[in-house]
Amino acid sequence: MRKLFVLSAFLAAAISTFVVFQTMQTIQYDYPLGTDDSFELLVGESTVPKDQLIDGLIQAVNKRGGCLVKPSTSAETYGSQRDLIYFSSVQPSSSSPVIGSDGSISWLTPGMGGKLLPAHTMGDSPLAGTYMLKSDQSLHEALDQWANENGVTITWYGQKPLRDEVLSIVVSGGMIIPWLSTQLLVLTLAMTWITLRLHTRAIQLLGGVTSAQIHRETLGILARLLAIGGTLGIALSGVLVTVVLGPANVLLVLPPTTILCLLSFACLLVLTYLLSVMVGTGMESLRFRRPVVGKILPLCRTISAVALVLSMQTIPPAISLAQRAWKSYTQSSIARCFGDTIAVSLNNFDYLDTEEGAQEAQRVMHGLSQKGCIVTSLVIDSEFEISNDERGGYSQLVIVDPSYLHLIGITLPTESGESVLTEVSFDSLPSATKDLLQESLSLWMGGEMAFKETFSFYEYHGDGLIALGQNASYNSAFTTCKNPLVIVMNVPVDKMSMTGFVVPFISTGNIMFTDPESTKEAFAASPIYPYIASFDRVADVTLTTSQDLLANVLLYLAITSVSLLSICACALQCASSWAIAHEEEVFLAHTAGLGYRGIYAPRMRSDLAFSMIPLVIGAGICIFVSPYSTPLVVMLGAIVVETCFALFSTLTYTIACRKTFTAHILREG
């Protein structure tokens, strides 16, 4: 039992390190370099060149001081690198994350590095996205003024002081759950240890030891065990952090971890002393030759109820996050397929609307089309409103070219017999759908092209087709289409109408380019180049968001493991206490031939019935508090928790009854 208690203290210290680590990691991701405010920047409507927008941001920061940064990643370095782009003439410095002398970033994420990059070197990284800054009213006003002058949109998320951010992560974000669960585990084992020693405590009292001395002795023993387990937990956690993240990061994590452990262990010792007093010295147990069930079992059930309520705050959100993670994984997998695919942002259409501009655009697009580096994807529903009748029973209407399908790993039926696409005749479509497509697609066709030769129509039978809505490539908002009508262009994009299709959809990012260098060279050698605002990587925002979601998923998986462990410990405590309290009944019933399951079945049914109360309470709290849970997911979580509690109870009652029976035969305890 002592070893088990030391192990629980070790686990509590390790989880305290984990809580501090995850809290600091989240703060690093959300508000790096000491920032405390953030905003979302959209530049899709701006006609100002990207370099000019960057200069404006840098000037605003330089005049008023402070720190303005934007996270960035790419398809190649998605799992290993998270850069920070800073907008100022002076490189910011900070202890969190740790910044090396060469500008390298050491994140509190295993295997994750990065660089601190000046804004003028951001290259294809899109200017749109989330920015973090050190809150300052004058800088706030300057950025709003800059946005108005340049036709961009800033959406402020609001200032968040460090104290509020920590509370948000620990409480609302669920970080407090694993910490409370491990503290509950330690308290549960302390109570079990006290219960198992009731007979010994009674003999001590008969031997002249006062009750106060007995309680102090109990507290001293448990304090030493806590100190041993806690020290080992902190030390080994420090070694692990040093090996995985380096010595600089261990200096960030260990000091707050040590303080948290000292405070939590002090509270545990106070509660343990109170439990020791409540349970008593065991004299009544000795007098009646059985433990006093009335004092112990209600406490066991109370602690189990708390464990179940806490578990209901972790398992449903974990299920929701797992669903979101799978969707994010699908989108990030598609995003990685895009690689360094870029979108070209145009800031002026005056030249392109002329005959000369249209001819020049066609020349550039023809050259790039010959190199096979153009892909097209558009959810037509995002371009204009479509009624249900016009949609014809399909979830969306999507227009793509064969190159886009190949990019996301889909083949046409003519290319493979295992295609997820099935060709349908245009004439077989509902009349409202045909009328809509005939009218809209004809506007996008160029020259004397024949409608049925230009487009082919397919039904999709896969898990979800990823396509891009209007302006989606600038914020990586990919659309998952469950049952779309897929319209495939049978001609190169340069054969489509330049003014009606090509130029508008280059501007919205629905026509993209898979070879950045060839694309930049082609436009740089063209009169179109002065009208280009920026070249932006398509997958940047999705991959950065996926990194954040993955961190949340791993956090909740760890929290769920700890919660299940605490349920198991509480089940063990209830079973052990009941078996000790009913030692004679267990011995007589099993000697008479009754199996262990038949002995404890009535009590376990009572435990399971009682567990429904904390489950309902926990479910109600989860529905109203957790940002990740829905009623259906909470119901599924309750089933998982109750099933685990039943399995753990069956196992622990069997073990406890067998151990009690054996101890009675051997006259132990």
From TrEMBL:
The keyword Ion transport does not apply. Residues 1-21 form the signal peptide. The chain crosses the membrane at residues 176-196, 221-245, 257-280, 608-626, 632-656. Keywords: Membrane, Signal, Transmembrane, Transmembrane helix. It comes from the Bacteria. This is Efflux ABC transporter, permease protein. The lineage of its organism: Bacteria, Bacillati, Actinomycetota, Coriobacteriia, Coriobacteriales.
